[in-house]
Design brief:
Uridine Diphospho-n-acetylenolpyruvylglucosamine Reductase, domain 2; 21 strands; 6 helices; five-stranded antiparallel β-sheet; binds flavin-adenine dinucleotide; alpha+beta; globular; Uridine Diphospho-n-acetylenolpyruvylglucosamine Reductase, domain 3; 3 domains
């Protein structure tokens, strides 16, 4: 196997919350064959596996992860225009790079990706989006490995995407995706990208340790409004608090533990349920041992 398996790796550096304990194993494969070899070997070992993208939607618990974290690196971050004009993007490619590549090639409808700090693999798994766009609308097909080591390609109509999720979550390793490329006017694409980035700057905090929106928006409601109405804005537990600019952004103020964040999540969920009767569902993924 040419990829490296490291042991006892601290996960803090791999999550935007900058929190979490150690992973028993941390695997950075070099190519698809490497992953298949690992998965075949793991059939006997039967260890837990977690696929990590850019960690911008993942809280690792303080107890770490008792298994193998698989992180696709630069070998999986290629991006190109195919002969039919559509895009092929490696799962580890960052969303921002996709947005900029699309801009350079006068391809519209990917402007929203300039506001999302994830990898395209994570973005497919989460069906991420903003400003009336979501990645599902651009997907032609997805190449992936099952955890049994089988390579598959699913066309868009074989994939179940829903609001902030897909059936891919935790069950496959996405390797690459084909995205529909609609040609547009470069200046208009640039202006739209600038507008989205500007809107985000106004409405959301930056340079904080957060994974963005912690809860999904329930039907026709905004999670941040429910949190505000329920008097949670100023709640904090240890070093965990809510952003003043956007109260659905939970943050590590520098000395939080993952437990602080999880306890604050539960406190806010309880208060919102009591006040509004609505049970908020998590958007972020919480991984590992308590
Ligand atoms: C400041 C900030 C702003 C944000 N704004 C938005 C926003 O506007 N809209 C939005 O939707 N989200 C937003 N997010 C959340 C986050 O950026 C997205 O969910 C992003 O798409 C997650 O990608 P990731 O690579 O970081 O995923 P990770 O956090 O690494 O993983 C998330 C999930 O995807 C799975 N996954 C990752 N890679 C793969 C793969 N190759 N194969 C299979 N499964 C995989 C993981 O197992 C996990 O279940 C924001 C986050 C931050 C920090």
């Amino acid at each position: 196997m040419s990829g490296q398996i490291l042991n006892d790796i601290n996960l803090k550096q791999y999550s935007w919350f900058n929190l979490g304990g150690n992973a028993k194993n941390f695997f950075k494969p070099k190519n698809r064959k490497d992953i298949i070899n690992f998965l075949n070997r793991n059939k006997k070992l039967n260890q837990n596996i977690h696929i990590l993208g850019a960690g911008s939607n993942t809280l690792f618990r303080d107890g770490g992860f008792d298994g193998t974290i698989i992180k696709l690196g630069s070998e999986f971050s290629n991006i190109k225009v195919l002969s039919d004009g559509n895009l092929e993007v490696g799962a580890a490619c960052l969303d921002k790079k996709v947005a900029n590549f699309a801009l350079e090639n006068s391809i519209k409808d990917f402007e929203f990706l300039s506001c999302i700090p994830g990898s395209i693999g994570g973005t497919i798994a989460m069906n991420s989006g903003c400003y009336e766009h979501e990645i599902a609308n651009s997907v032609i097909s997805v190449d992936f490995l099952t955890l049994g080591g089988e390579f598959k390609t699913f066309k868009r109509d074989q994939i179940n995407f829903y609001y902030r999720g897909s059936d891919f979550g935790e069950t496959v390793i996405i390797l690459s995706v084909k995205l529909k490329a609609n040609r547009g006017n470069k200046d208009e694409i640039q202006n739209k990208q600038n507008k989205f980035v500007e809107q985000k700057k106004i409405s959301q905090p930056s340079k904080i340790k957060t994974c963005g929106s912690t809860f999904k928006n329930p039907n026709n409601k905004k999670a941040w409004e429910l949190i505000k109405q329920s008097g949670c804005e100023n709640l904090s537990i240890g070093g965990a608090r809510l952003s003043e600019k956007h109260c659905n952004f939970f943050m590590n103020n520098g000395d939080a533990s993952s437990k602080d964040i999880e306890m604050l999540i539960e406190r806010v969920r309880e208060k919102v349920l009591l006040k509004t009767g609505i049970k908020l569902d998590l958007e972020i993924k919480i991984i590992g041992k308590k």
